[in-house]
Amino acid sequence: MDLSSSVAVVTGANRGLGREFARQLVELGATVFAGARNPASLDVPGATPLPLDITDPDQVAEAARIASDANLVINNAGVSTFARLVDGDLADIRKEMETNYFGTLHMVRAFAPVLKISGRGAFLNVSSVMAWLGYEHSNTYGASKAAVWALSNGLRAELSGDGIQVSSLFLASTDTDMMADVDVPKNDPADVVRIALEGLAAGEQEILADQAAVDLKATLSQDRGRFSGAR
Ligand SMILES: NC(=O)c1ccc[n+]([C@@H]2O[C@H](COP(=O)([O-])OP(=O)(O)OC[C@H]3O[C@@H](n4cnc5c(N)ncnc54)[C@H](OP(=O)(O)O)[C@@H]3O)[C@@H](O)[C@H]2O)c1
């Protein structure tokens, strides 16, 4: 797809990868609606602020009404609570599912008809290598990101007849607030977003933003327990 002429909606555009998505899309010449729960926290010159909590279906529907000429949705907003499966707080685990899976699903259901009108639309759903890996303190989050992976696979089947591209993004640790307290090597968000947008423009279905994503995808048919390649 031609990003320079696209009309894009980015969720969670007030910080981290979302802000970088919005900034780079503006730089490429796209018209950008920058979604944020608190629009006052947005700092993306050239983008139009869009009040958007993806867990609120009414607000998502209103966003689809405002951005009625969108042909690209970057489903970036997400949370990680670092809860454990066996003894973590269920409220945290539900919050990850409500945001990462159901929030993304709300966006898809509201914007699929909008993208269909454009004739050549696209969703980019941000998953994670944690969809493919068991890793201490990231497993409830991983389950929600595996749900986003499955969602993307299913959408591809449901939406291809409407001319809608569905791409999913896989990345390991990246230097944003989400990973601020985790002391591991991290990607530069600008690099991740550049690779994501190049993959999106090229029509890639699964965009692998770093070596860990490449390595993990290559081992998907193997015993998951033995791999320790995530950063
Ligand atoms: N950083 C990593 O290592 C990494 C690795 C793999 C995948 N990812 C994924 O990349 C995406 C971006 O994460 P990030 O690293 O940029 O994290 P971040 O810096 O923590 O930013 C998260 C963004 O999501 C927004 N958000 C959270 N809940 C929301 C909701 N209900 N409605 C709308 N916006 C909401 C936040 O808005 P507020 O400011 O209002 O909270 C914020 O803008 C996420 O999907 C994350 O799971 C990140």
What structural keywords apply?
single chain; 231 residues; alpha/beta; Rossmann fold; seven-stranded parallel β-sheet; 7 strands
- Total helical segments: 6
With strands numbered from the N-terminus, the spatial order across the biggest sheet is: 3-2-1-4-5-6-7
Q: What is the CA-atom radius of gyration, in angstroms?
A: 17 Å
State the CATH architecture: 3-Layer(aba) Sandwich
List segments where confidence is low: pLDDT < 50 over at least 5 consecutive residues.
none
> How many separate domains make up the residues?
1
| Secondary-structure element pattern, one letter each | EHEEHEHEHEHEH
Overall SS class: alpha/beta
Please tally the β strands and state the result.
7
How would you describe the shape? globular
Ligand roster? NADP nicotinamide-adenine-dinucleotide phosphate
**In CATH, what is the homologous superfamily?**
NAD(P)-binding Rossmann-like Domain
Biggest sheet: strands, sense, closure?
7 strands, parallel
**CATH top level assignment:** Alpha Beta
Helix content: 40-55%
End-to-end CA span: 31 Å
| Fraction of residues in β-strands | 5-15%
At the third CATH level, what is the topology name? Rossmann fold
The overall pLDDT average reads: 95
Pfam families: adh_short
Family: Belongs to the short-chain dehydrogenases/reductases (SDR) family.
Keywords: Oxidoreductase
Organism: Rothia koreensis
